[in-house]
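Is this the right way to post structure tokens for a design question? Let me know if I should format differently. Anyway, here goes:
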């Protein structure tokens, strides 16, 4: 049985919104040079790779890029 609970892994308490920081974080994750774009490039390049070892390497790098950057 599948149970879906819509809750965050860590609690988030925002006292004052910071639009400038939000813009930077969004551009790093989803911008043209962001994590998502890099991840999709690695994962699409793996289909034209002739060597299975390198396909695995590109898959590992591409999935690692999906992890959002951590800010202190």
């Amino acid at each position: 049985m599948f149970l879906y609970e819509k809750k965050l892994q860590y609690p988030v308490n925002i006292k004052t919104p910071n639009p400038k920081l939000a813009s930077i974080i969004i551009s790093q994750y989803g911008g043209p040079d962001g994590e998502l774009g890099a991840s999709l490039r690695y994962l699409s390049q793996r289909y034209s790779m002739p060597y299975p070892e390198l396909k695995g390497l590109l898959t590992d790098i591409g999935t690692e890029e999906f992890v959002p950057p951590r800010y202190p």
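Format looks fine. Someone answered above. Worth noting: Residues 40 and 62 are 7 Å apart (CA to CA). Residues 19-65 form one domain.
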